[in-house]
Design goal:
The protein has three helices and no strands. The protein is mainly α and 79 residues long.
């Protein structure tokens, strides 16, 4: 695994340390990797929503109900 050296602001470093001290994570590295995984997942969701919005804008109207649209969106976001 590649090693990196990064700097944190004092408040961010204190928060990272508190998460490790509270046994939420074994190390700051584990926490930072988890945050990056979460950000990547969130970015995939944002990208999917952006594509859906662009597609919807180009296609005009839909026959799907509001409930159907919300259900599909929630399934994709949580899946």
């Amino acid at each position: 695994m590649p090693r990196q050296s990064i700097s944190f602001t004092d408040p961010n470093d204190a928060w990272l340390k508190s998460q490790v001290e509270n046994n939420e994570y074994a190390s700051k590295s584990e926490l930072v990797n988890d945050l990056i995984r979460q950000a990547r997942k969130q970015q995939k969701q944002v990208d999917w929503l952006r594509l859906k919005i662009e597609s919807a804008e180009k296609s005009g109207f839909t026959n799907a109900s509001v409930d159907e649209i919300l259900k599909e969106s929630k399934e994709r976001l949580n899946g």
